[in-house]
């Protein structure tokens, strides 16, 4: 039963944690940088990268793509498709 297998593969707490982690990584790695390699905020000022790695929300950085969009993409497409492939694989192995 595909629906039951999909239900068994779904851990909402884990998926929420993964979504939060993906958003945090998108905040850190998706910033605009200046020629020196330093992160810059929307006004073009350098951002203190030491504080940014601990708390990415301290500064409004100039992101290449909105981190929340990356997290939504991951939770709406990547995770469901991964589970779908896992279910299909399990059903094929059981045939």
UniProtKB/TrEMBL annotation:
Q: Which InterPro entries does the record match to this protein?
A: Chorismate_II_sf, Chorismate_mutase_AroQ_euk, CM_AroQ_sf_eucaryotic
Annotated signal peptide: none
Q: What class of enzyme is it?
A: isomerase
Question: Could you identify this protein by its name?
Answer: chorismate mutase
What keywords tag this UniProt record? Answer: Isomerase
Q: Which GO terms describe its molecular function?
A: chorismate mutase activity
Q: Which reaction does it catalyse?
A: chorismate = prephenate
Show the PANTHER family listed in the entry: CHORISMATE MUTASE (PTHR21145), CHORISMATE MUTASE 1, CHLOROPLASTIC (PTHR21145:SF0)
- EC number(s)? 5.4.99.5
What is this organism's lineage? Answer: Eukaryota, Viridiplantae, Streptophyta, Embryophyta, Tracheophyta
Which GO terms fall under biological process for this protein?
A: aromatic amino acid family biosynthetic process; chorismate metabolic process
User: Superkingdom of this entry's organism?
Assistant: Eukaryota
Q: Name one GO cellular component term.
A: cytoplasm
SUPFAM superfamilies the record matches: Chorismate mutase II
């Amino acid at each position: 039963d595909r629906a039951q297998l999909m239900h068994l593969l779904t851990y909402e707490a884990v998926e929420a944690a993964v979504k939060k982690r993906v958003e945090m990584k998108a905040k850190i790695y998706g910033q605009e940088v200046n020629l020196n390699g330093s992160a810059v905020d929307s006004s073009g000022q350098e951002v203190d990268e030491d504080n940014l790695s601990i708390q990415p929300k301290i500064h409004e950085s100039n992101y290449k793509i909105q981190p929340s969009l990356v997290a939504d993409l991951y939770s709406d497409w990547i995770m469901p498709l991964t589970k779908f492939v896992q279910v299909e694989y399990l059903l094929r192995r059981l045939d």
